Amino acid sequence: MPDLPKPAAIPEFPVCHARGGTSTGLILAREALPRDEALVEELLRHLMGVPLQGEWPGNTQITGLGRGGPTSNKVFIVERRPGEMRMISTLAQLAAGKSAIDWSVNCGNMSAALPLYALQRGWLEPGRAVGRSRSTTATPRPRCMRAWASPMAGC
Description:
By secondary structure, the chain is α/β, with parallel strands linked by helices. It has a single domain (about 15-150), classed as Diaminopimelate Epimerase, Chain A, domain 1, CATH 3.10.310. The chain has helices spanning about 35-50, 110, 115-120; strands at about 15-20, 25-30, 75-80, 85-95, 100, 130-135, 145-150. The protein is globular and about 45 Å long.
């Protein structure tokens, strides 16, 4: 049997699919993503099933995790600095039929999923943790900052 070509390496990215309020989307850890922002945007388009370039009217996103409506096309990129009880998050808003990504918005509903993600990652200890989440946008100043306590605090 002849030698078959080895398949190309397929990169793996840990993805958390979450619901926060009326919205659903993905939460990705910054450290798992490429450093090149253009590659990050390309990855987000692939993950959500939106066009890589231009527009695709009527796209149903069957090749990705997005579900058509704007409430289901959100991706949070999060990071935590070692030793800090603070999570920094950046929201990418995608649209089913467009390749453009809006980095200037925030979503309070999806933000509600961030403390649970932090618990799952071990960034918070159940029952005693209080932390902060800072949301960034395309502007250099933080758009909002939230303080949150572990859902188990006081139980």
